[in-house]
């Protein structure tokens, strides 16, 4: 393990000097109150957001979307279509913000990069044997480098959940560090796949581990495992980000992904961010929503607010 | 002597195969002819109407993809269950002031059976094989319009209620029915019949409440494709509803014609050109 003490305070730097000190650190964290986390997430999700606040929330949510297609059946034209939609979510209304990024498999990054040329929309590519993460470090590094060469501005990596669950924290830590190096200038999002981590304590440990190893963003899920993003899991991760910032003064981003389909859901996440961190995190630089069908629902709600009548999927583009 | 407690019935809405209370928590009281209390009935709100349309839309694909024969069987099943519960309907119609309630219920059952029988005949009657100049088979086939909003009259009539619903669902549409106060109890009972027959959840959704409050939301709703306004008696309201229904060119019924012409209102004709060989 390589210590990254230069960027961290001494307390945290000590944690990364060896595998055993990392383990001691992770198990020295205060446990998560599961009932409390669930209750707080449920309480915050009852907040009612209407009219102008809702309109602002919808536009903010659109600007935070990582519009995603991660299917085996993805084609170049599907990716181009998605990019066109990301640049102009609604062609009849140019006041709509663009989405934050288009999220694709690494081999599609080049096509996405070309299709997004001249816009502010970033290309995010999943790498490191997504979604399982079951490959050697060598393959994962190559996978990452290729995606970066193909033009990816952001890399979404998965952690090795098998190693994490069997206690090989050093291995997980090293992998993230190595991938961070392979990323170069590209931003690194680390996917914890919380649906496989089973407990909130594990989520908290994996969040800390990822941030210590150099993640720019931590992300809940691949979208391929149920449950994907949930409000309480996101809350736990946001609280960890808050704790990390307190000690290091370093702001880590958050990306819930998977299962966020409605405007109501998206607004709940925004409330969670505002209440747990602050308005500073309510920007696409520090908060993203990994989604695909969510965008259409946001567009329909936006039109409902403007026109006063309910909308239909018949009038938005299909993905 | 019967010592057991009287179990009061709570008349609720019927949305997506479930019986929720109104999201708004509102109810209204239904009394019989002699002003004797009958029931508290849920008073649907705009949001209940919104949820009902979502339910109807999500039920549409499966219901319209079912074979016509299968839809016919399901609708026939409604008549079967309704027949078994006819005493309840007779009592409810009588308490709402309908004379000759027993033959009325029999007629309603006949109507359902009539519509059920038409299910696998619509495409033969409405569709056609067209002679064209060129090597093509040319067919015109009726397809369901989509989600239909049905406004029921405040004059309680089981015959009209089942006919208005059946005419829409027989060709594969799904419906949201708005039922005003006087008709509400038989509609809620019909919902209980639908829930225990084989009609898939969301195909029929029933909202009891104020038509003047609910119908405008459905008329302007872009995900509603057709509207039966025959139950709206207020002329000004009817004109307003027609105007907002025009935003997405909804099919409109001003009066309910009953029978084949009602069925035809809710289908779109698709014409297919199929190349022949040499």
Secondary-structure blueprint:
The complex is a heterodimer of chains A (319) and B (278).
Chain A: H1 10-15, H2 19-28, H3 34-44, H4 51-63, E1 65-68, H5 76-87, E2 101-105, H6 109-115, E3 122-127, H7 137-149, E4 154-158, H8 161-165, H9 169-183, E5 187-191, H10 200-213, E6 217-219, H11 231-248, E7 253-255, H12 263-276, E8 289-291, H13 294-307
Parallel strand pairs in A: 1-2, 1-8, 2-3, 3-4, 4-5, 5-6, 6-7
Chain B: E1 27-31, E2 37-42, H1 46-65, H2 68-84, H3 86-95, H4 101-118, H5 122-126, E3 128-129, E4 136-144, E5 147-151, H6 158-169, E6 174-179, H7 184-196, E7 204-208, H8 211-220, E8 226-228, H9 235-245, E9 251-253, H10 260-265, E10 267-275
Parallel strand pairs in B: 5-6, 5-8, 6-7, 8-9
Antiparallel strand pairs in B: 1-2, 3-4, 4-10
Short description:
The complex is a heterodimer of chains A (319) and B (278). Chain A is 48% helix and 11% strand.
Overview of this protein structure:
The complex is a heterodimer of chains A (319) and B (278). In chain A, helix 11 links the parallel strand 6 and strand 7. Chain A contains 13 helices and eight strands. Chain A has an eight-stranded parallel beta sheet. Chain A has a single domain (5-306), classed as Aldolase class I (TIM Barrel). Chain A has helices at residues 10-15, 19-28, 34-44, 51-63, 76-87, 109-115, 137-149, 161-165, 169-183, 200-213, 231-248, 263-276, 294-307, and strands at 65-68, 101-105, 122-127, 154-158, 187-191, 217-219, 253-255, 289-291. Chain A has 319 residues and is of the alpha/beta class. Chain B has 278 residues and is α/β, with parallel strands linked by helices. Chain B has one domain: Aldehyde Dehydrogenase, Chain A, domain 1, CATH 3.40.605. Chain B contains ten helices and ten strands. Chain B has helices at residues 46-65, 68-84, 86-95, 101-118, 122-126, 158-169, 184-196, 211-220, 235-245, 260-265; strands at residues 27-31, 37-42, 128-129, 136-144, 147-151, 174-179, 204-208, 226-228, 251-253, 267-275. In chain B, the strands form three sheets. A five-stranded parallel beta sheet of chain B has the order 7-6-5-8-9, sandwiched between helices. Chain B is globular, with a radius of gyration of 20 Å. Chains A and B meet through loops of A and helix 1 of B.
């Amino acid at each position: 393990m390589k210590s990254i003490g230069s960027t961290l305070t001494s307390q945290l730097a000590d944690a990364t000097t060896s595998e055993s000190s990392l383990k001691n650190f992770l198990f020295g964290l205060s446990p998560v109150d599961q009932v409390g986390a669930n209750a707080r997430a449920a309480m915050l999700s009852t907040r009612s957001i209407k009219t102008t606040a809702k309109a602002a929330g919808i536009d903010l949510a659109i600007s935070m979307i990582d519009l995603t297609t991660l299917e085996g059946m993805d084609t170049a034209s599907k990716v181009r279509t998605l990019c066109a939609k990301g640049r102009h979510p609604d062609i009849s209304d140019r006041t709509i913000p663009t989405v934050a990024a288009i999220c694709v498999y690494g081999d599609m990054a080049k096509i996405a990069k070309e299709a997004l040329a001249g816009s502010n929309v970033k290309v995010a590519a999943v790498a490191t044997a997504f979604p399982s993460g079951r490959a050697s470090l060598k393959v994962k590094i190559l996978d990452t480098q290729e995606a970066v060469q193909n033009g990816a501005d952001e890399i979404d990596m998965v952690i090795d959940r098998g190693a994490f669950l069997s206690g090989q924290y050093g291995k997980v830590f090293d992998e993230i560090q190595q991938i961070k190096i392979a990323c170069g200038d590209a931003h690194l999002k680390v996917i914890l796949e919380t649906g496989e981590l089973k407990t909130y304590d594990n989520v908290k440990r994996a969040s800390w581990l990822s941030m210590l190893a150099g993640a720019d963003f931590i992300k809940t899920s691949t979208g391929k495992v149920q449950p994907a993003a949930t409000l309480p899991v996101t809350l736990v991760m946001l609280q960890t980000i808050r704790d990390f910032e307190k000690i290091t003064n370093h702001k880590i981003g958050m990306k819930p992904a998977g299962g966020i389909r409605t405007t109501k859901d998206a607004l709940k996440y925004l409330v969670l961010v505002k209440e747990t961190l602050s308005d500073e995190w309510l920007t696409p630089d520090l908060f993203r929503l990994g989604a695909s069908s969510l965008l259409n629902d946001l567009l329909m709600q936006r039109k409902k607010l403007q026109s006063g009548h309910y909308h239909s999927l018949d009038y938005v583009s299909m993905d | 002597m019967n010592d057991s407690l009287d179990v009061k019935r709570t008349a609720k809405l019927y949305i997506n195969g479930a019986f929720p209370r109104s999201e708004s928590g509102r109810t209204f009281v239904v009394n019989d002819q002699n002003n004797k209390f009958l029931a508290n009935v849920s008073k649907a709100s705009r949001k209940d109407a919104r949820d009902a349309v979502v339910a109807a839309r999500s039920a549409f694909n499966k219901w319209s993809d079912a074979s016509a024969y299968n839809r016919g069987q399901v609708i026939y099943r409604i008549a079967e269950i309704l027949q078994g519960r006819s005493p309840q309907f007779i009592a409810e119609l009588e308490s709402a002031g309908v004379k000759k309630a027993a033959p009325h219920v029999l007629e309603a059952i006949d109507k359902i059976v009539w519509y059920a029988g038409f299910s696998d005949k619509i495409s033969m009657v409405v569709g056609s094989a067209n002679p064209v100049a060129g090597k093509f088979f040319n067919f015109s086939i009726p397809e369901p319009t989509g989600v239909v909003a049905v406004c029921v009259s405040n004059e309680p009539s089981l015959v009209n209620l089942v006919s208005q619903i059946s005419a829409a669902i027989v060709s594969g549409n799904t419906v949201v029915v708005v039922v005003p106060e006087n008709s509400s109890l038989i509609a809620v009972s019909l919902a209980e019949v639908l829930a225990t027959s084989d009609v898939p959840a969301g195909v029929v959704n029933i909202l009891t409440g104020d038509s003047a409050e609910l119908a405008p939301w459905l008329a302007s709703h872009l995900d509603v494709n057709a509207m039966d306004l025959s139950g709206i008696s207020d002329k000004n309201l009817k004109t307003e509803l027609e105007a907002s229904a025009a935003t997405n060119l909804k099919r409109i019924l001003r009066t309910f014609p009953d029978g084949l012409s009602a069925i035809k209102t809710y289908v779109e004709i698709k014409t297919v050109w199929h190349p022949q060989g040499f």
